[in-house]
Design brief:
Glutathione S-transferase Yfyf (Class Pi), Chain A, domain 2, 3-stranded antiparallel beta sheet, binds glutathione, transferase, Putative glutathione S-transferase, Thioredoxin-like_sf
Length: about 325
């Protein structure tokens, strides 16, 4: 694992020394927006018009942030408009790698990972350098790439799912809206709380290097799961009867919870399976059309347990847990 410093790749684990053992996630740097007409979006430059075949999405099937973008690509019928490439799950001294001859000797090819189709790159950081030769910062998935300008449109999943939600509607005819105007302030408030305490909360627990930072994150995770469990007793989804962006952002962390975060990141007060509402809710989302195909536990487990040598030096990947997200969820009873 590493990062780019003024265009040079440096193999380096997260530095928590300056923050009392707390893991602090770096903000994404590429923040342009694809819009229907190519005018500038909420951030970045203009010139990124929604067009079939123009953009390419790079993801890891392991990564909860990249997973959001894959789900939106499916929900919004963008598969034929935006092609996708899946990186290898093992993220080692060269960071994210593509399948193929350049793979580092430590990495093992896992079924489903692909070669880089546009330029034949070996590593994701090489694409970052193609976009910005002097780039400094972490090299993360997802990446939305523009084949016309040969650059990164965005490496922020929260922005990419908003683009997918609306920018291509005129091309797909799919106007399903996961961020509808009347619910925006409620969705924003949910996202804020869930990002800090759940999505990034599990990472704050797992990557903490002080007992205090770990315990704070642990409490944030479980206090928030308790609150969500309560909320989901009365209503099918987070804002009520409509599935929104807030649900999908929560889903990608919850689906990984028992397989990875509970053990590897030590968020082990309870399993997700011990929360009746939350576990049925996750099954409900998993069973929405097209979503199950975006979930790959081989990539998820291989990534976390194998890549984080600081946390799991033996790199043994656990065989369990046994779980079946296709079981009945009974949450239709909450529809009104
Ligand atoms: N803010 C980014 C975060 C993405 C992110 O942190 N992805 C992780 C994988 S789960 C990554 O690529 N990490 C590599 C690193 O930190 O070096 C987003 O939501 O798109």
């Amino acid at each position: 694992m590493g990062l780019l410093q003024q265009g040079q790749w440096v193999d380096q684990w997260y530095d928590t020394g300056k923050s009392e053992g707390k893991f602090e996630r770096e903000a994404a740097r590429f923040r342009h927006w694809v819009t229907a007409d190519g005018n500038a979006g909420p951030a970045g430059d203009s010139g990124f018009k929604a067009e079939a075949g123009r953009y390419h999405l790079y993801v890891s099937l392991a990564c909860p942030w990249a997973h959001r973008t894959l789900i939106f690509r499916t929900l919004k019928n963008l598969e034929s408009l935006i092609a996708v490439t899946v990186v290898e799950p093992h993220m080692l001294e060269n960071g994210w790698e593509f399948a193929g001859p350049g793979q580092s000797h430590n990495a093992r090819h896992i079924h489903g990972a692909e070669a880089e189709p546009l330029y034949g790159k070996d590593y994701l950081y090489q694409l970052y350098l193609q976009a910005a030769a002097d780039y400094s910062g972490r090299v993360t998935v997802p990446v939305l790439w523009d084949k016309q300008q040969n650059t990164i449109v965005s490496n922020e999943s929260a922005d990419i799912i908003r683009m997918f939600n609306s920018a291509f509607n005129h091309l797909t005819g799919n106007s399903q809206d996961y961020y509808p105007n009347p619910l925006r302030s409620e969705i924003d408030a949910l996202n804020e709380r869930i990002y800090h305490n759940i999505n990034n909360g599990v990472y704050r627990a797992g990557f903490a290097t002080s007992q205090q930072a770990y315990e704070q994150a642990f409490d944030d995770v479980f206090n928030t799961l308790d609150w969500l469990e309560q909320r989901l007793c009365e209503q099918r989804y987070l804002t009520g009867s409509k599935l929104t962006e807030a649900d999908w952002r929560l889903f990608t962390t919850l689906i990984r919870f028992d397989a990875v975060y509970h053990g590897h990141f030590k968020t082990n007060r309870q399993r997700l399976a011990d929360y009746p509402q939350l576990s049925a809710y996750v099954r409900d989302l998993y069973q929405q059309p097209g979503v199950a195909a975006t979930v790959n536990f081989e990539h998820i487990k291989q990534h976390y347990y194998y890549s984080h040598g600081e946390i799991n030096p033996t790199r043994i990947v656990p065989k369990g847990p046994l779980q079946d997200f296709s079981l009945s969820h009974q949450r239709h009873r909450l529809d009104n």
